[in-house]
């Protein structure tokens, strides 16, 4: 929730037309945050940063009462690959992205912890920690968020225990937080539909609720514990609207930035945002 008492909610937007354009698009659909890929997930290099464009976004965010943004690292990066070239690329890309994020100080940078590709979770966690020790710089103004994963293939970060081990194993764990994806935790086995508070209690016991910095709001095409990761529009999957009403009215969640990553075009996102705001009594 922002200073005006409204939910900080938005969706994933295309960065193709630049930063200021994303801010305007967000406002068009009554969003007060958004997510974007810091570079093309399929491609290599990031576009040169236009400082005027970034300044215009910052001004727009200020004028329209935006909350914290949740940038997304390319999902193709893997800090715990078995190939050192892949690990090196992930470290270099994240370092560059975080340098660029300093032009938008005080926001979040979310990433997928990685896939251990058969090396085992212990090796995966160690590699992720080594990578983060290289890319996190004391004094930086961005908080880096580990995303909770569905447990597809050899993904690390399905359980709260694994996320906690990563945070604990890093030299600069103070710069880390967690982004909880409702589809992923459900697919990963956590019952956010009928026991949201129980799941949050468990998160608090294992990681600490103060580490929870952002939410990805997605319904799921699959039953609990399916380890699939297929997002559905809100209300049209296994979670249902009741789950999302419970999320946006939960005292431990309602103040966090919430990002929709549902299979929608802009008008679909606008409808979902309006419904969430209604649940929150706006
Ligand atoms: Fe993600
Ligand atoms: Fe997500
Ligand atoms: Zn996903």
Plain-language structure description:
Helix 1 packs parallel to helix 2, helix 3 packs across helix 4 and helix 4 crosses helix 5. The protein is built from 9 helices and 11 strands. It has a single domain, classed as Divalent-metal-dependent TIM barrel enzymes (TIM Barrel, Alpha-Beta Barrel), CATH 3.20.20. The protein is globular and about 45 Å long. Strands 1-11-8-7-5-3-2 form a 7-stranded parallel beta sheet. The longest helix is centred in the N-terminal third of the chain and has 18 residues. The chain is an alpha/beta fold. The site of one fe (iii) ion (FE) has 4 residues, from loops.
Topology readout:
Layout: E1 9-11, H1 19-28, H2 51-63, E2 70-72, H3 84-101, E3 108-111, E4 114-115, H4 121-135, E5 143-147, E6 155-156, H5 160-169, E7 176-181, H6 182-188, H7 196-206, E8 212-217, E9 219-220, E10 231-232, H8 240-248, E11 258-260, H9 266-279
Parallel strand pairs: 1-11, 2-3, 3-5, 5-7, 7-8, 8-11
Antiparallel strand pairs: 4-6, 9-10
Bound molecules: fe (iii) ion (FE) (2 copies) and zinc ion (ZN).
In short:
This protein is α/β, with parallel strands linked by helices and 282 residues long.
